[in-house]
Design a protein that fits this description.
By secondary structure, the chain is of the alpha/beta class. It folds into 2 domains: 6-156 and 367-382; 162-365, 3-Layer(aba) Sandwich (Rossmann fold). The protein contains 15 helices and 14 strands. It has helices spanning 18-34, 45-51, 74-77, 98-106, 124-128, 162-171, 175-182, 204-213, 228-235, 260-269, 279-286, 302-315, 320-333, 339-365, 370-381; strands spanning 6-11, 37-42, 61-64, 67-71, 87-91, 112-116, 132-134, 141-145, 192-196, 218-223, 244-247, 250-255, 272-276, 291-294. The strands form 2 sheets. The chain has an 8-stranded mixed beta sheet, covered by helices on one side. Strand 7 and strand 8 (141-145) form a beta hairpin. Helix 12 packs antiparallel against helix 13 (320-333) and helix 13 crosses helix 14. The longest helix is centred in the C-terminal third of the chain and has 27 residues, at 339-365. It starts with 5 loop residues before the first strand and ends with a helix. Bound molecules: 2'-deoxy-thymidine-beta-L-rhamnose (TRH). 2'-deoxy-thymidine-beta-L-rhamnose binds at residues 16-19, 21, 51, 118, 197, 223, 226, 257-260, 263, 276-280, 296.
C-alpha cells in the first residue's frame, strides 16, 4: 500500500487556546477526512490538554485520535529529530525552527510550505489568499492560506459531520436538557440560556446586572477560568466549577472548562453565546444560534477594523434596526460605546437573530470547509495525487 502523504503542523501556544484550538481541529480533520499522516508539533502541552482530555501533557511523543502529537521543545532547536513532512503548515506565522527549515531545503522534493493565517473578514484577504513568497536565501516557497468568509478564501474549519450532528442534537428535544443537566445546570423552562466566554476586559458585570434586572429569566453558564474577577464579584465568592447564585432574574453558574466537543454542545444548547478569539467564534456560527463576538484585541485597534468588516458581511441583508442593534452590541462588548445602552435593542432582536443565524451558516457552508480547501490546494501545488 502506498504510504500516506505526511503533514507536519507547527503551533505555538502563548497562554491561549485559540491557536491550538484551530490547529488541533485542522490536524484531526486532515488525518480523518483527508487521509494524511499528520504530526502536530506544539510548544505548550498543558494548554493543549485543557481542550483535549485524551492528551497526556507529560509525554513528548504520543498518538491522540490518530494524530502524532510531538512536544516542540528546546531539544528540537538543538537539532532533534528532523524528519520533514511532505507538507509543512506553520500556524499563524509561528516561525519554524531554523534546523527544520534547513532540513526542508535539503529535501530533493521540497515540501509544500503553508502559512495558515489568522481569520479576517477584510476585503484584502481575498487578494492575498494562496499568494506565494520565495524564501530570501533557501530554495523554498511559502504559500499564504487565509481562512475567511467568502468563496475566494480558504473558508472556515468545519468537520464534515458537524452539520448533521448539530441538526440531530437540535432535533432531539431532550438532548440540550440532558447535556446541561450532566453539567449540573437545570435552567427553568423558558429561561434564556447563555454561555459566556470572553476576555477579562469585557463588560461582564454590566451584562450580569442587566440579566438580573430583566423581567425575563436567564441562566448563564461560564466555564471555570473565564472572566474570573467579574464572575467572582457577582457570585460573592471564588468562581469555582459548581458554584452558582440566583439574583433577580439571573442564575449564574460556573461550569467546568469543557473539552472541544463538549464546548460545541454547550453552544448548541444555548440561546445566546458570548464567544471570543477565533475558534469559539467560528463554532458559534456553526451552532446557528445568536452570538456576541469579542475579537482578540490588537495594537492600534486593528481588531475593530476586523470586527466592523465582519459585521458588514454578516449583517448585509438584515433589516436596518436588527443590523444596528447587532453592530452596537458587538462594538460595545469590545469597548466601543455603552453596553447597557446597546443591550435592550439586541435582547429584543434575539428571535430575529435566531433565524438570521441559520441563514448565515448556510451561506458560509457554501465556501466549503478549510481542511478540504487546504487539502485540495496542497495536492495541487505539490503535484500530490
Ligand atoms: O484562546 P482564544 O482567546 O484564542 C485567540 C485567537 O486564536 C486569536 O486569534 C489569537 O490571536 C489569540 O488567541 C492569541 O479564543 P478561541 O480562538 O475562541 O479559542 C478557544 C478554544 O478553546 C476553542 O477551541 C474552544 C475551546 N474551549 C473549550 O474547548 N472548552 C471551553 O470550555 C471553552 C470556553 C473553550
Amino acid at each position: 500500500m502506498p504510504s500516506k502523504t505526511s503533514i507536519h503542523l507547527f503551533c505555538r501556544v502563548v497562554d491561549n487556546f485559540g491557536d491550538i484550538g484551530v490547529s488541533w481541529r485542522l490536524a484531526r480533520q486532515l488525518q480523518v477526512e483527508h487521509e494524511f499522516e499528520v504530526t502536530l508539533w506544539v510548544d505548550h502541552l498543558p494548554s493543549f490538554a485543557r481542550i483535549c482530555r485524551n492528551l497526556n501533557p507529560e509525554l513528548a511523543r504520543q498518538s491522540v485520535e490518530g494524530v502524532n502529537v510531538r512536544h516542540w521543545n528546546s531539544d528540537f532547536e538543538r537539532g532533534g529529530p528532523l524528519d520533514v513532512g511532505d507538507v509543512v503548515v506553520e500556524a499563524f506565522g509561528c516561525a519554524l525552527p531554523p534546523p527544520y527549515l534547513l532540513a526542508m531545503a535539503a529535501r530533493p522534493i521540497k515540501p509544500v510550505w503553508i502559512n495558515l493565517e489568522y481569520l479576517s473578514a477584510e476585503a484584502w484577504v481575498e487578494g492575498c489568499h494562496a499568494m506565494q513568497s520565495v524564501h530570501p536565501s533557501l530554495p523554498l516557497i511559502k504559500y499564504f492560506f487565509f481562512p475567511g468568509f467568502t468563496p475566494r478564501t480558504g473558508g472556515l474549519l468545519m468537520e464534515v459531520d458537524l452539520p448533521r450532528a448539530r441538526t440531530a442534537f437540535a432535533a432531539d428535544t431532550n438532548a440540550a436538557t440532558a447535556f446541561l443537566q450532566a453539567l449540573g445546570c437545570s435552567p427553568a423552562p423558558g429561561a434564556l440560556r447563555v454561555s459566556l466566554f470572553c476576555y477579562p476586559d469585557a463588560p461582564v458585570i454590566t451584562l450580569l446586572h442587566l440579566l438580573e434586572a430583566d423581567e425575563r429569566p436567564s441562566f448563564c453558564m461560564v466555564p471555570e477560568g473565564v472572566a474570573t474577577e467579574a464572575v467572582s464579584a457577582f457570585l460573592g465568592k471564588a468562581a469555582a466549577a459548581g458554584v452558582s447564585v440566583t439574583r433577580g432574574s439571573l442564575t449564574l453558574r460556573v461550569i467546568p472548562f469543557l473539552d472541544q466537543s463538549e464546548y460545541d454542545r454547550l453552544l448548541w444548547s444555548c440561546d445566546l453565546n458570548f464567544v471570543r478569539g477565533e475558534d469559539s467564534a467560528v463554532r458559534a456560527q456553526w451552532a446557528e444560534r445568536p452570538f456576541v463576538w469579542q475579537i482578540y484585541p490588537q495594537d492600534e485597534l486593528a481588531h475593530l477594523v476586523k470586527l466592523r468588516a465582519f459585521l458588514a458581511r454578516m449583517c448585509a441583508g438584515m433589516s436596518p434596526p436588527v443590523s444596528e442593534a447587532l453592530h452596537n452590541l458587538f462594538l460595545a462588548w469590545s469597548g466601543v460605546g455603552e453596553f447597557a445602552q446597546a443591550w435592550p435593542a439586541f435582547r429584543d432582536a434575539l428571535p430575529y437573530l435566531q433565524a438570521e443565524a441559520s441563514h448565515w451558516a448556510t451561506l458560509l457552508r457554501r465556501n466549503g470547509d478549510l481542511a478540504a480547501n487546504l487539502a485540495r490546494f496542497v495536492r495541487k501545488v505539490g503535484g500530490i495525487s
